[in-house]
Design goal:
Elements (H helix, E strand, L loop, with lengths): L9 H10 L9 E5 L1 H7 L1 H8 L26 E4 L5 E4 L7 E4 L19 E2 L2 E2 L2 H13 L5 E2 L8 H8 L1 H10 L2 H23 L4 E5 L12 H7 L1 H7 L1 H6 L3 E4 L8 H7 L1 E5 L2 H4 L1 H7 L5 E5 L10 H15 L6 E7 L5 H15 L7
Parallel strand pairs: 1-12, 7-8, 8-9, 9-10, 10-11, 11-12
Antiparallel strand pairs: 2-3, 3-4, 5-6
Helix pairs in contact: 5-6, 7-9, 9-11, 14-15
Length: 359
């Protein structure tokens, strides 16, 4: 195991044993509740959370402000990020979408001024002193010091946040030389942020980039390896050299490039079950990379509690290994009924067997 477990709390030790295939005590699991879900259900949702302390071990009764939103991407209205992309939000508590693209016209590239990675965060200045405190505090609590600092969609998606999706696809297909200028700009920003986190003591790096579409990659695997993979290889090289594990969230169909993601340094992958299929993930990922497996969020709003129990049990049985390498996570949007959220929690408790809080 590359990271020492000395001084870690029990949940962190179990997490590390899971990602390093070192026979964890239980299968880590979590339920993610979107801000919009709290806004809709309020006290009723807190009752469900309090009924499942093994899933929500850190929740304190009465501590949740149901209307609070920390991430500006979940607030209503339009806002411009440090890259110049304009984001629009039409439902408070749900994610924004890119509305306007600063480099839709290549004519704007010569005058484009990119953000400074050491000064500019997505929607404001970077506070590296706060980052240093957060990393140190995590270590004092016996937790992993996780380095992030990059918006979801940090590389491939950032390119189409700048160019617009259709333009980017044409750029890649025609191998427009201006695209490689833009790749260098985005890659340079990301690399500087990653190196800064490592210098400040981050013990792992967590990233997000939706590389797939619902049924396929947006380009052939060969094209992905030519256009996108080299940047991943260069950006994550310091992590590989330092033995720092990389956690990657990526939505969409990514089966064909899972070996490439492992090769560039991804140790914990967060793929979608519906887009990739259970059999595909068994073949391409099981036992080869740790999975923080995203359960079927497209099923949750419409399923019965029994169907949810069957789904979670099937995924667990299909991907679980005694030596580890599996976590399960369920994201619940406001269209998921409360009874189904409760059923998700119960099913995860039954198959993953997380301990009681404080144990």
């Amino acid at each position: 195991m590359a990271i020492s477990t000395a001084g870690r709390n029990r949940r962190t030790v179990n997490f590390l044993k899971t990602i390093y295939f070192d026979t964890p005590e239980w299968t880590p699991c979590a339920v993610s509740l979107l801000p919009a879900t709290w806004i809709r259900y309020r006290e009723q949702l807190e009752e469900v959370v309090l009924a499942h302390p093994r899933i929500f071990p850190d929740h304190v009764a009465g501590s949740r402000d149901y209307d609070a939103i920390e991430d500006p991407m979940y607030e209503l209205g339009r806002r411009t990020d440090c890259w110049g992309t304009v984001w629009d939000n039409v439902e408070r508590g749900m994610a924004s979408y890119p509305y306007s693209f600063p480099l839709r016209d290549w004519a704007d590239l010569p005058s484009y001024v990119p953000p400074d990675p050491l000064l500019d965060d997505v929607f404001g200045p970077r506070d590296w002193n706060a980052v240093r405190r957060e990393l140190a505090d995590a270590k004092r609590r016996g937790e992993l010091a996780v380095g992030g600092g990059l918006q979801h969609g940090f590389m491939y998606m950032r390119l189409f946040y700048l160019r617009d999706f259709e333009n980017l696809m044409l750029d890649i297909a025609t191998e427009d030389p201006r695209l490689w200028q833009l790749v260098d700009i985005v890659e340079g920003y990301n690399s500087a942020v990653i190196r800064k986190y490592l210098a400040m003591g981050a013990e792992c790096v967590s990233l997000g980039d939706d590389l797939g579409l619902q049924r396929s990659l947006p380009m052939s695997p060969t094209t992905w390896r030519k256009a996108i993979k080299p940047s991943y290889e260069r950006m994550l090289r310091p992590c590989r050299e330092a033995g720092i594990p990389v956690f990657l969230h990526t939505d969409g169909h990514v089966l064909e490039i899972i070996p490439d993601l492992i090769e560039v340094g991804v140790r914990l992958l967060n793929p979608q079950i519906r887009a990739n299929g259970l059999e595909g993930l068994r073949e391409m990922a099981r036992g080869k990379v740790a999975l923080n497996q995203d359960l079927d969020r497209q099923l949750f709003p419409f399923a019965t509690p029994r169907e949810i129990e069957d789904h979670i049990g099937t995924v667990f049985e299909g991907l679980h290994l005694p030596e580890g390498g599996l976590m399960l996570i369920a994201e619940c949007a406001p269209d998921v009924p409360l009874d189904n959220i409760d059923a998700i929690c119960t099913a995860l408790e039954n198959v993953c067997r997380p301990p009681e809080p404080g144990v």
